[in-house]
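Researcher: First entry.
Model:
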Amino acid sequence: MFENTHFPKAEKFWYLGEIMEWKEPTIHVMSHALHYGTSVFEGIRAYNTKKGPVIFRLQEHMDRFMHSASVLHMDVPYSKEEITDIILLVMKENKLEKAYIRPLLFYSYGNLGLVPKHSKVELIVAAWEWGAYLGEAAKRGTRVNIVPWRRIHHSQFDQKAKLGGLYVLSTLTGVLARNKGYDEAVYLNLEGNIAEGPGENIFIIKDGVLKTNDMSESILEGITRTTVLKLASDIGLECRVSPITKQDFFQADEAFFTGTAAEIASIVHVTDDSDPADEGKEYTIGTGKVGNITKKIQNFYLEVVRGQHDAYADWLTHVYKK
């Protein structure tokens, strides 16, 4: 029996063509993905609006979900449209007005060789009510630690894909940063530039210019990242996409994380522990408080995802269609 203590309002999930009770999962312990991380997933958010709950940029998430599956050579037994319908069904079955949604495709029970040639691809869709990933730290500004381990290089795999097994590095560094008293970790890439957080892209602001990096800097091209670039441009901010050096990061006027789970979270303090041989140096970003431009982008983003700007209505999928 599994309690939903850390999954508020989660009562049911979808698996093997059925809506199942949250407390009684039925996945075999020898499932391939459990041992080797052979899964792909998405993190998607739904928000409450005056017209009822909406799912933000669901089509883009579905496109990436299916691309990730193709990278792992999965024969997916469902179409994007079918998975979309399942997501809507799970929202309704749990009576959720706002939610974090997790679709997961994985190689299940069959064989335990590294190549899952006898393991079927199965789908799970779950949803629950989950606040901002970084919690209270996102409101006051996060304190981050640049960890000594480098981000997996963009030449090693298709970084447009969200592959389950690769996130073990995110778990390791996330735990490391928190054990040292920080809110989150930050990676450098093999070139020594700023890459991203364990589950977030990074933006900086200098002299009124918004800047982020791209996939050549060993990042996942996040959907929230592309959203922020569009919104910032629409409100008249100059935006640049180019490498971010450590000095760019340390000398920024403002900095923030973006991600579906984290949404937009300011970064106000950095400790550089990227070289284990050196004592970590500390830096304050800007004034050490959440910056005005960050607040402006953050507020605009939250208005958009909650359906307050008709210009972005195409990004919203209504759970209860008229």
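Researcher: Second entry.
Model:
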Amino acid sequence: MTSGQQAGRHASKLLPAHLMVGSDELKKKNALKALDRRLGQAGDPAFNRDEYGSTAGYPEPAELLSSLDTLPFGSEFRLVIIHDVETAGKALTEQIVSYLKNPNPTTVLAMTATRLASNTRLYKAVAALGANAIVDCSPKKRRELPVVVRQMAAGYGLDLDPDAAAELVSLLGESRMLIDSELAKLAVAFAGRPHVSAADVRENVARVAQASVWDFLDAVSRRDPVSAMRLLLLMPDESPMGVFSLTLTRVRQLLVTKCLERRGAVGSLAHELGLQPWQVRSYPQYARNYAMGELVGAIQGACECELALKSRPDKMLSLQRWILSFCHR
């Protein structure tokens, strides 16, 4: 069940309050949309909905209490929304804590917060209403996002291949709200198209996030020199020597992967590399892009590259030449 469906279920039970905590703005938006849909089904939202915080400003404690205690007009319940409640004044949050000790059974109070510690009085007051009162809106980890993005794309009728989903995350960062907005645009641009590739994404989506060195390393591992060179130039905060060191480590990791595969012991890869299993999940697939001799040659060529990085002024050119010497097919 999604967070939006979860919040909608809560509203049907007229739960006195929901607290949507986390930095995933899309989750919070969908949860509030579910409550709004429920309100629309119950009666006229115009007479039964108050919204505070964010750009609307916060009410005085007495004004908020009056809103919460107002009976619904031609509706099953009233909906009162407070955005970014963690930035509201203490007097207001204390009023909410006091109110929740004996809440109006015909009002649903929906609050959002980016961060709110579980030991605060407000968090505890909402949590005391039941296990479902807190809606977790924590963001997905970056490694999980490509799978989530493909699911989001399916909702727009788009079929993104794994590389296309990963490219979208690389270009836009981890904001699901921004990703959702771009997916809506892609759905219009590719209406009727059965498949959207990484190249399609690059041609139609502008980069707003700084390139990640991990995206660069994955491009090298996929043996995609075009993407690798493009990402390399989009990492202004990374030093050539730092990128060299990380790339050499990845080449060594792929070499270990091939050796373990030959022995039939690839299951011990994470242990041998001192990494978590999720970190090496793609390594066997990456290693198949290279022959053993190519990886050995990359390590041998690293000596010359390291010397150039330490002694020549054109460090980026030296790094590019080394990467292309083994990454280019």
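Model: Note on the second entry: Strands lie at 17-21, 49-52, 78-82, 107-113, 134-136.
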